[in-house]
Specification:
Oligomer: single chain
Number of domains: 1
Helix content: under 10%
CATH topology: Maltoporin, Chain A
Radius of gyration: 25 Å
CATH architecture: Beta Barrel
Number of helices: 6
Strand content: over 45%
Largest sheet: 22 strands, antiparallel, barrel
Shape: globular
CATH superfamily: TonB-dependent receptor, beta-barrel domain
């Protein structure tokens, strides 16, 4: 009944606004004069940046009605996202994923010492409602941002408190997503005065079990990915129960609460900004593990949950009024627990990891006529605590168990200095920069460690140089050419060097790797862009990355044995090693074109190819994390200044089995035989905004297609009607 009332309200608003004056919505056009907040750590015009940068504004995020930021990236059609469970989203930039993509929130790195090379879900710990914009910087960015930026940088900019005449304001937002029966409620309040501003925002999300589409994209099996049964505990025992609706993916729902507050204080010639963020999730079931069965149809796990998954950020920023110098001190704390139990076993293992990361960044910008110099320093410290325990679910007896990482603690220290110069001459902009970084890792194992390792300490030190060079050339008022070359790096972290993890039950067990080197990539980019405020914008680009010392897991040994008894099964041992080299090549295109008056067409297309060689002169093999072709086509009608209509076709190409990596990271066992088929879904959106009232309606996957993103362990949403209502006062 509530949904019907909301639909009626939306329709009435549409008809009541039909007589409103028409305008041309140019907010999504990539104007050469658009200011990018992340490009050079200081604000910079798009026409001065040689990088491929895509922007999702808060306005666009609201239009997409996403459940999480991962869903917003998927809907944009410009970023590929992998999911192992509903409570997950792992962005892939130019064939790099997880620990090789740097996440920044308000300039503070989210990547800590336990970010893994597989798949991550940390981006969902940032609330979409608090973002002012999200900028995706494609291509390596180590000169400005340090380690981990091999594939690019995702810069998440939250809203800032405003200063001005004294007043209070607030907002309330409600969302409903039908395919998962999910409810999201968000509320916020703001206060501003001439010298003090404050924002408080809170969001509570309750996600139900996700329903897949009814029409299988895999033509050879109309019932592919259906869930006819699932595991649950009944009278203290694991029991296989019949799923009354095989399209419902039992064990995908979860809950999450987010809080955000920011204070801004003006004193004389300085701004003081205090930034506090918290994300607290309940139990997040690992659906890909809980749904897998062996050749005889037997489930492998009775339980596999993330519990908890929490992130806290405390940051202080000191900035002068003219904005040319800044100091940021931040502490970020994450807590991730993994609770696992083999099917039928009474022993439940909990592995809990806590990371406290301190960061200090100081930046300054000086300008002299045609020359700008950006420079600064950064210090990062990670303290990792990892522990494990076993609990008998029948007797409640507890005992010590294997930790995920080194059981006596681990620390990393990183310090770096950088400088980048930008020279403007007529229609030409040249920029070049250098960064020097020193990094140290120390991890300790107790003499009684349960793995019986032949050492009790792992250490690593590296001093590395990264650099970049870029040139942009404007050709008239509407066209621009771009070229850049850069070197980026990623130092091995605590996850790479000390992890013990069963990647595939009974088949693959990762153990610590004490001898690793830093990964290094060298990338050349070529791009062409065109922008006209009246007619639209577009961009084409091509790039090639050469990677040396790439880290991949390979068969290994421990104490002369190639297997280890793990959860009752002898499991093959693997370790992270630096292989010879890898090459990633790709091209992309996107455009937004005015068709007629207020009708706009837009589209994007991304192609990526990656190969690696284990040894020099050996045959090359498919690299992991390389997505198939993907993109989107859309048609938008801005009916008036308060309402829009949009139709979208979101697509992925086919990924053949022969193009999957042998490492197992591509999860070939969770895709159909022969590889992942191509698919395309249709979405429609309608939005209304007037005098503080905001209504959004989207219908996604109209044909109710059953499909799965490449390398993902959960089937994507079936047909879903998503409603969002908000009011600002």
């Amino acid at each position: 009944m509530k949904i019907n009332k909301l639909l009626i309200t939306l329709v009435c608003c549409i008809y009541s606004s039909s007589a409103s004056s028409q305008i041309i919505d140019t907010t999504e056009i990539e104007s050469f004069d658009e200011i990018l907040v992340s490009s050079q750590r200081f604000a910079q015009k798009r026409s001065e940046s040689p990088r491929q940068i895509e922007v999702l504004t808060s306005k666009r995020l609201n239009e997409l009605v996403p459940a999480t930021l991962g869903d917003a990236l998927i809907a944009s059609g410009k970023v590929f996202v992998q999911k192992s469970q509903m409570g997950g989203s792992s962005p892939v930039l130019r064939g790099f994923e997880a620990s090789r993509v740097l996440l920044l929130v308000d300039g503070v790195r989210m990547n800590n010492a336990t970010f893994r090379a597989g798949h991550l879900q940390d981006i969902i710990t940032v609330d979409p409602f608090v973002l002012d914009r999200m900028e995706i910087n494609f291509g390596s960015g180590s000169t400005l941002f340090g380690s981990d930026a091999l594939g690019g940088v995702i810069f998440l900019k939250t809203k800032d408190p405003q200063l001005g005449q004294k007043k209070w304001s607030g907002s309330l937002n409600l969302r409903y997503l039908s395919s998962s029966s999910s409810f999201i409620i968000n509320g916020g309040v703001q206060y501003q005065s001439p010298k003090f501003g404050w924002i408080l925002n809170m969001t509570s999300s309750q996600f139900g079990d996700l329903r897949m589409g009814s029409r299988s994209y895999y033509k050879a099996d109309s019932k592919y990915a259906e869930m006819p049964s699932f595991v649950a505990q009944h009278n203290g025992r694991d029991t296989v129960l019949t799923n009354n609706d095989p399209l419902i993916q039992r064990g995908t729902g979860y809950s999450q609460n987010d809080v955000f507050t920011k204070f801004k204080l003006k004193t004389k010639k300085l701004y003081h900004i205090f930034n506090i963020q918290g994300s607290y999730a309940g139990i997040i079931p690992r659906y890909d593990r809980m749904s897998l069965t062996d050749n005889q149809g037997r489930f492998g796990f009775g339980r596999w949950d993330y519990a908890p998954q929490n992130r806290q950020l405390f940051a202080y920023t000191l900035q002068n009024l003219i904005g040319n110098s800044r100091l940021v001190i931040a502490n970020q704390r994450t807590q991730v627990g993994r609770i696992t139990r083999p099917y039928g076993s009474p022993t439940e293992r909990t592995q809990l990891d806590r990371v406290s990361m301190w960061t200090l960044n100081t930046d300054r910008q000086n300008k002299w006529s045609a020359f700008t110099l950006n420079y600064g320093a950064e210090f990062v410290f990670n303290d990792v605590e990892s522990m494990g325990s076993n609990k008998n679910i029948l007797s409640r007896a507890e005992s010590k168990a294997k930790a995920r990482y080194s059981d006596s603690g681990a620390q990393t220290y990183s310090s770096g200095v950088f400088a980048q110069g930008i020279y403007k001459w007529k229609n030409t902009v040249v920029q070049s920069g250098l960064r020097l970084t020193h990094y140290t890792l120390q991890a300790f194992f107790s003499e009684s460690n349960l793995w019986k390792l032949p050492y009790n300490e792992i250490s690593f030190k590296n001093t590395g140089l990264s650099y970049d060079f870029g040139l942009t050339q404007k050709m008239g008022d509407y066209m621009m050419l771009k070229v850049s070359y850069n070197q980026a790096f990623r130092n091995p972290n605590v996850d790479d060097m000390t992890k013990v993890f069963e990647s595939t039950r009974g088949i693959k067990l990762l153990i610590p790797s004490p001898n690793l080197d830093a990964e290094v990539s060298r990338t050349i980019d070529l791009g062409w862009a065109i922008s006209h405020k009246k007619y639209g914008s577009g961009e084409l680009g091509v790039y090639r990355s050469a990677v040396s010392n790439l880290l991949l897991d390979q068969p290994g040994q421990l104490n002369g044995s190639d297997s280890l008894l793990w959860d009752g099964a002898m499991t093959r041992i693997y370790q992270m090693v630096n292989i010879s080299s890898a090459t990633i090549f790709g091209y992309y295109g996107n455009a937004r074109i005015r068709i007629w008056k207020d009708i706009w067409a837009n589209g994007s297309y991304t192609f990526t190819q990656g190969r690696f060689m284990k040894l020099e002169n050996s045959d090359d093999e498919p690299l992991d994390h390389i997505p198939p072709v993907f993109g989107q086509l859309a048609l938008r009608y801005n009916a008036s200044e308060v309402i829009f209509y949009e139709a979208q076709y979101l697509f992925n190409g086919r990924k053949l089995a022969k193009d999957y990596s042998s490492s197992g990271e591509d999860n070939a066992n969770q895709n159909p035989p022969g590889g992942n088929p191509q698919w395309g879904i249709y979405n429609i959106r309608v939005g209304y905004q007037r005098k503080g009232l905001m209504l959004q309606l989207s219908a996604e996957n109209l044909l109710d297609l059953r499909y799965r993103y490449f390398a993902s362990g959960v089937t994507a949403s079936g047909r879903s009607v998503n409603l969002s209502a908000g009011y600002r006062f």
